Amino acid sequence: MPQLNPNPWFFIMLITWLVFALTIQPKLLSFISPNPPLNKSSAKTKTTSWTWPWT
């Protein structure tokens, strides 16, 4: 069964993984997010409990 022979496919997978890890990933991680998160105030809002009609 030729599909079980890992000889050509393992090398292709290894080269693909190395190309992604060493060239594409650092380029993608160097981008700055266009919408950086804002510092929200830590003031707690007052919440009221729900009034159930059957209680």
From TrEMBL:
Single GO term (MF): proton transmembrane transporter activity
Residue ranges crossing the lipid bilayer per the database entry: 6-24
Claim: Ion transport is one of the keywords in the record: yes
Cellular localisation: Mitochondrion membrane
InterPro entries in alphabetical order: ATP8_metazoa, ATPase_protein_8
Family listed: Belongs to the ATPase protein 8 family.
Name of the protein in its database record: ATP synthase complex subunit 8
Originating species: Colius striatus
Gene that this polypeptide is encoded by: ATP8
